[in-house]
TrEMBL record, chains A, B:
Lineage, broadest ranks: Bacteria, Pseudomonadati, Pseudomonadota, Alphaproteobacteria, Hyphomicrobiales
SMART domains, per database record: HTH_ARSR
Molecular-function GO terms, alphabetical: DNA binding
Species this protein is from: Bradyrhizobium ottawaense
UniProt-recorded name of the protein: DNA-binding transcriptional ArsR family regulator
PANTHER family in alphabetical order: TRANSCRIPTIONAL REGULATOR, ARSR FAMILY, TRANSCRIPTIONAL REGULATORY PROTEIN
């Protein structure tokens, strides 16, 4: 049996909450890594972010990202799979997500976006 | 004699601080109004924002906007003139400011961006 955590509808996604959520470097790194992964697979699992922070700290950030509408969480058994809500975000705020990701990418080293990231090491 | 308050250099402008600064609805409204005004004149004076919040509240938000690099403040006598640091922001984070302003514009009513704004009533 799987529980689906609460997500805001597309219309409920609010700009100030999205910007506030993205202003945290760890959440920015999570979003950045999800965006990097979009080319390969749209979902990542919680363990893929272990290099960014401790488990409970990550759980907190995942919840914030879900609650503001940036991320969709799918629960399957004991696993959680995350993906960006790109369609919803692009519909609500055209160009915003891409501009933030591009800006983050420019400062990737300074922001330590890929610090100890395990995403690309899988397999 | 005029004092110039401290501003970060272009290179010191940090993405998380900019996003955090923009996540406040009053600061978002200030930035939005400065952007609307860019076509006519690049500067606005503190009194132009009186409809958004009280004087000391506004002073706090102006300082936050200056400190994160979004806004340039020029002191002339007892007046303060504000403008967006568009060139610096576009150089550091291409497309970000425009995407935020466009997103804010879509939700202008919901965000009360122009609520009791006195900017257009001048003269």
């Amino acid at each position: 049996m799987s529980r689906t955590p609460l997500h805001p509808t597309r219309e409920q996604i609010e700009l100030p909450m999205v910007l506030d959520c993205l202003s945290d470097p760890i959440r920015l790194a999570i979003v950045y890594q999800l965006a990097q992964q979009e080319r390969v697979s749209s979902e990542l699992c919680c363990g893929d972010f272990n290099g960014l922070a401790g488990k409970s700290n990550l759980a907190y950030h995942f919840a914030k990202l879900r609650e503001c509408g940036l991320m969709q969480t799918r629960v399957a058994g004991t696993n959680r799979f995350m993906r960006l809500r790109r369609e919803d975000l692009d519909a609500r705020f055209p160009g915003l997500l891409d501009a933030v990701i591009k800006s983050a990418s420019k400062d990737a080293e300074r922001l330590q976006l890929m610090a100890e990231c395990e995403v690309v090491e899988a397999g």
